[in-house]
Amino acid sequence: MTASPSDFYDDFAGDYHLIFENWEASMTRQAAAIASILQRECPAAGATVLDCACGIGTQTLGLARLGFRITGSDVSRGAVERARAEAALRRLDIPFYAADMRKLDELPASGFHAVISMDNALPHLLSEADMAQAAGQIRGKLRSGGIFIASIRDYDEILPQRPVVQGPIFYSDAGKRRIVFQVWDWQDERRYAFHMYLTRETSTGWANFHGASAYRAVLRDEITGILNARGFTNVQWRFPRESGFYQPIVIATAAAA
Question: Whole-model pTM?
């Protein structure tokens, strides 16, 4: 049985940073890759950014440290609470809100220069209608000429293979082991249950986390078509060798209203 994305990430918020070998280094690396796109595509002074799938703040915190005026939102209240606490620890002034990306009109701010949605957040939307609704809401938060940036797994490459396991990945924390792996249970040609397993060695023994949620494998042409139909133009794709980001990235421009 799978949990909703909000419930899954509520449960995982306290441990999410452990899927990275070094969360701080990942923050810095990912922020640098995203910043290079932002600076090229919307170079306006004082550009404002909405991270509409901010999670515990992996991209939000990194971009704020680079000086971007960023707002974070996420469907998971637990993740938002963790992101807010991490921002406070770093003395970063970032507004955070709990919001489903299909209902971004609930957020008080709009007119952003950019909206981002990274780390394969879009495929948590399990139908084309849900994704189209989210695209329309994202467009509504952008000023004309603003940009949307999202990253997804490369499902164009993954779907023919339909892998069932990702990992395991082994890390070491001061001599103690940490193991991260995923199991994918395919439900049909597109949908799969995503199981996250995290096992780590502590001073008192082994600690384990298991959570499951759902994804829908979405192809690049499908995303391009939805964005074109929901008020975006100039849809482009960038791949890791070009962008420096670990997943394919889509970039789209908000058409004039």
Answer: 0.96
